[in-house]
Write a structure and sequence with these properties.
Blueprint (H helix, E strand, L loop, with lengths): L2 H17 L4 H6 L4 H31 L6 H7 L10 H37 L7 H20 L30 H30 L12 H32 L10 E2 L2 E2 L7 H35 L6 H15 L14 H13 L1 H15 L8 H23 L2 H7 L3 H30 L7 H27 L19 H31 L73
Antiparallel strand pairs: 1-2
Helix pairs in contact: 3-5, 3-6, 3-17, 5-6, 5-7, 5-8, 5-9, 5-15, 6-7, 7-8, 8-9, 8-10, 9-10, 9-12, 9-13, 9-15, 10-12, 12-13, 13-15, 13-16, 15-16, 16-17
Amino acid sequence: MSATAHAHIEDHVDDHMHHHKETFVTKYIFSQDHKMISKQYLITGLIMGFIGIAMSLLFRMQLAWPGQSFPIFEALLGDWAPNGVMDADIYLALVTIHGTIMVFFVLTAGLSGTFSNLLIPLQIGARDMASGFLNMVSYWLFFLSSVIMISSLFVEAGPASAGWTIYPPLSALPMAQSGSGMGMTLWLVSMAIFIASSLLGSLNYIVTVINLRTKGMSMTRLPLTIWAFFITAIIGVVSFPVLLSAALLLIMDRSFGTSFFLSDIFIQGEVLHYQGGSPVLYEHLFWFLGHPEVYIVLLPALGITSEVMSTNARKPIFGYRAMIASIIAIAFLSTIVWGHHMFISGMNPFLGSVFTFTTLLIAIPSAVKAFNYITTLWKGNLQLNPAMLFSIGLVSTFITGGLTGIILGDSTLDINVHDTYFVIAHFHLVMGISALYGLFAGVYHWFPKMFEGKMMNKNLGYVHFWITAICAYGVFFPMHFVGMAGVPRRYYENTAFPMFDELTDVQVLMTVFALVAGLAQLVFLGNFIYSMFYGKKGPQNPWKSNTLEWTTPQEHIHGNWPGAIPHVHRWAYDYSKTAEDGEYIIPGQDFIPQNTPLFENEEEENH
């Protein structure tokens, strides 16, 4: 970073700290401090997450006990559940909004927005983000999009109902069904604002990592968390504008009479005046974002796992440069595999074989990451705290879910299980549960840094992990077999198909596991809220970690460090490093912070 830029930032921080007294509004609402904005993202994401989980529990109850009356349905759904029996239209709406909230508002903004904001300045040695104002605008656009998405639940015709992918022509024709009216328009407006938020955030993260690293913080000394956030931001800048174009064109089809995605539409025998468009064009536009989105969700979780696992194994991360290479390879390959979502759309078989090849190719860097995690754990001095358990759980679900991706990535095999519960099992394990585990690991690990030294209750963390881990497999592992039996996804009930009657008990089993898992998240929520206000204070560096964020004072100050920013002299993973005589480099201490200069005769780790 140039000396001029350094001087500008230092002057800005000095001016801010000495001349501006913060009010409640400037500190907690319209804050430009990255640490406060990260907490805003986290709390908003958690609220959206609990709404999304509640929706999944409602439609799982419908799947387990189709047509039965539940008072909670009538209480929560009103006219959409007459006499406590869920209406078919609201079932599809719940599935749609659940998927949208969890993928975009929780696992994209809630995960990446929280930890990119918290960790990028702290771990690279910067006073703040490159633009605090754009950072604030990014959060408030996210908040606005969240409000619009939730408000769509209360419109008279009902929220959007076309699955979270919102395929036309169902989504392009307001008269198609009740869920294609105002609720669909609000969905599209919400997503357009959400994408603007994501793009502003991503550009800010990229500029900050490139320009504001402290002295000595070369790219090969960056923690893997920062590499993950940096590459994730690049994927977002490349792919999110494509979804924005799809949303805007769909709004034009719905409201201005265009036909980008419509052609030869018949409703009740009447020919509508649309021609020239194609719904398959929308599929291409959606999945060009939709598949990189998997890694926009997953890479930050994998980066968090790298940091948590190395810290709690008391070992250097295995294959640091290989991990960076795999992140970059995943980022590139994720943009050229989107067609595997469209194998049964009438795609040219040759093109299908190309997408099969690129899809199977992405298994290589994914396997590199999995093996490197396992070898990092091997013979480590494992500290099995809640963050470490969730990180190990992530590796488990990443491998389990990834293996089924080999089947779905093959155009011939995919035909048999496409649009069945097999697909749901795959992406919930490899993306949904894995990313949630990364979110939980990050919260448990960096909670003291977010909330001024307060620690979450470890025993409640253990309860949260074990119930969640058991129930997650209890819900999604049986889905593979239900899918292989041919049960289609998104169906309100399967009573019209006698061949599926014997699978009803499996649906009940999965729903019971889902309900218990939902209750386990209340344990986490209670622990989080109580610890935020009344948690015991821990030491400044509770996990004995090497990265720079633990060198900042527990009390939050704007600018992070009260004096000069520390300089970096080594990589982030000098754990259990010994001298020639077998003793630790620093006697009695198995870690060496990044700002510790190299000792005499010590060589920097050749990673």
